[in-house]
């Protein structure tokens, strides 16, 4: 099982990576890339929240 800090760090990384993809998709007029970015950004946000919950529960 991943530590809370690792989950939060990976989540933040995926959020940023998703935002970059999302912007690149908008600039290049590529809706598929934009959608991938949005999904990755949301997934990263969820993973970061999981890390926060683990920290509260002491895992």
Set down the secondary structure blueprint:
Blueprint: H1 4-27, H2 31-57
Verbal overview:
With about 60 residues, the chain is an all-alpha fold. It has one domain. The protein has two helices and no strands. The protein has helices at about 5-25, 30-55. The termini are close together. The model has no long low-confidence stretch (mean pLDDT about 90).
- Estimate the helix proportion, in percent: over 70%
Bulk shape: rod-shaped
Give the integer mean of the pLDDT values: 92
Helix/strand-derived class? mainly alpha
Main β-sheet description? none
How much beta, percentage-wise?
Answer: under 5%
Low-pLDDT stretches are none
In the residues, how many domains can be counted? 1
In sequence order, what are the helices and strands, one letter per element?
Answer: HH
Oligomer: single chain
Number of helices: 2
The separation of the N and C termini measures 9 Å
* Computed Rg: 13 Å
What is the strand tally?
Answer: 0
